[in-house]
Design goal:
There is one protein chain. The chain is an alpha/beta fold and about 210 residues long. The chain has a single domain, classed as Rossmann fold. The radius of gyration is 17 Å and the shape is globular.
């Protein structure tokens, strides 16, 4: 049976870079979040209070549509693993960070309805990086709408991730400190992660 592996982490932690590298190394099917198609994203960064709910609802709808189409396909004995650079659970995380109480309660109800029968990841890899590395990576990739992100916002997201991951009991979780890793310039770092995936038994990896 193919494995469904999700990569998670704060903004700028290297999720997409690692997902692409693992997919190539493991000959796996790659699933990338289509975040740039969210028409509300740039407006949200300029006016979070006004656009938080539509931006989060759009993300949820797009993530659900993408994953349900991929994960609902019949299993094939020779089907390759699936590696995604996000999990559907991140929808709740960002919604809780960005929405007011009443909006979040409504959002949570919709989330539960949509995702109750969606396949859970066989493994979730959470990437840890220092605040300095996160800010540096965000600056390097140069997305205009991310340039105003500051350490306080990223710290809040990190806290929400820690809270969410503790409550995630249906998925295996690997916490991986990648501060010294370079998945673009150093192929050995990618192979280290591949080896950790193959031998993972549910313990923290650092």
């Amino acid at each position: 049976m193919s494995r469904y592996i999700c990569i998670e982490g704060n903004i700028g932690s290297g999720k997409t870079t690692l997902a692409k590298a693992l997919s190539k190394s493991m000959n796996s099917r790659l699933v990338l979040e289509e975040f740039e198609e969210n028409a509300f994203l740039e407006r949200f960064y300029k006016n979070p209070e006004r656009y938080a709910f539509p931006v989060e609802m759009t993300f949820l709808a797009e993530r659900y549509k993408q994953l349900s189409e991929i994960l609902s396909k019949p299993e094939d004995l020779f089907q390759n693993d699936i590696i995604a650079d996000y999990s559907i659970s991140k929808s709740l995380l960002f919604a809780k960070n960005n929405l007011n109480e009443h909006e979040y309660n409504l959002y949570n109800d919709l989330f539960e309805i949509l995702t109750s029968k969606l396949r859970k990841p066989d493994l979730t890899i959470y990437l840890e990086r220092s605040m300095g590395s996160l800010l540096e990576n965000i600056k390097k990739r140069g997305r205009p709408y991310e340039m105003e992100l500051d350490s306080e916002y990223l710290l809040d997201i990190g806290k929400k991730y820690n809270s969410l991951l503790v409550s995630e009991k249906e998925s295996n979780l690997m916490i991986l400190n990648v501060e010294a890793f370079d998945f673009i310039k150093n192929p050995d770092d990618v192979e280290k992660v591949v080896n950790e995936i193959q031998s993972f038994t549910g313990n923290r990896v650092t």
